[in-house]
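So, can you check these tokens?
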Amino acid sequence: MSFSFFEVSSASHPLAPYGWDEGWEAEFAPYVRRGLLPGRVVRVDRGQCDVVTADGVVRADTAFVVPPDPMRVICTGDWAAVDPVGGDPRFVREYLPRRTAFVRSTSSLRSEGQILAANVDHAIIAVSLAVELDLGRIERFLALGWESGALPLIVLTKADLVGDPTVLGHLVDDVRTTAPGVQVLAVSAATGDGVEVLSAVLSAGTSVLLGVSGAGKSTLANALLGDDVMEVRAIREVDGKGRHTTTTRNLLVMPGGGVLIDTPGLRGVGLWDAETGVGQVFSEIEELARGCRFHDCAHVSEPGCAVLGAVEDGALSARRLESYRKLLRENQRIVAKTDARLRGEIRREWKRKGAEGRAAMEAKRGGRSDRTR
């Protein structure tokens, strides 16, 4: 049965389970006058994509939405304007402005951004408890999650492999300390523990499932979807790493409500203009920095540095500060590659620090010369 766009309200629209609401309806109004149909992109292939519309899933050509800027390429989760029934092929003519987007930098030398999912409300960061926790990697994922505009959520998978409840509690506490203001859930897809709570959290809106290979994303996705939709392979016992069982980004409706976008395992998670996200992850450091003597304090060796004082007092871990510095440096390098003004500022800063370093060395040598006379 076919539905006219104006026959039903947004709440009862056939696309409502996929996230359609009054806001998207208003955004789409100009395309209705052009005779186009709304749909949500559930999967993208080379040159084509699958779009779910009121009439079902259609295969559409993306030739009209292939801009030179990779940040504007159509993505899983986008809301698209599709040709009406009858066209062969049918084309995606436009896509609506994104509310949020999860972006990472590619591993290419061109330092391009890659959009992994669009219009996401929750960024689920899957972390396996079958291997040692990598807190630095969690912080990296969180920075991108906050920067996307979505609400990050950390899911500690394979909780059944941690036999001692006390140990499990300590692991959860460690992650909570690393992720201030972020909900942390321990879940076992094998036993079902925690899955119902997670489903309730994700029942409204769109969620993207992120993590490295072997984190248990596909198994968790199957638990949330209530069916073996995603292929699962055993991880290597040697290092806990898995193969890329998921090779595309797929958007699926969960039976308890909400939409889930599963993604392939990420080997590299490079920052992409994520200064705000980094600040959110390390909010306690940024708060401490307000008490530094100098407003441009780098928290390295400056006198009156409140951040270094917190490290000395034990209120802030040295690992956390080093991770903060590392992510800020990385983000600055990425931004500088695409921002000529910032590149100039960084070069001037390098020259200034270099001159200061040389002056200090000369003064030191001079001091030794004076002492030897």
About this structure: The CA atoms of residues 189 and 220 lie 6 Å apart. The longest strand covers residues 37-45. Confidence is low (pLDDT under 50) at residues 1-8, 232-247, 368-373.
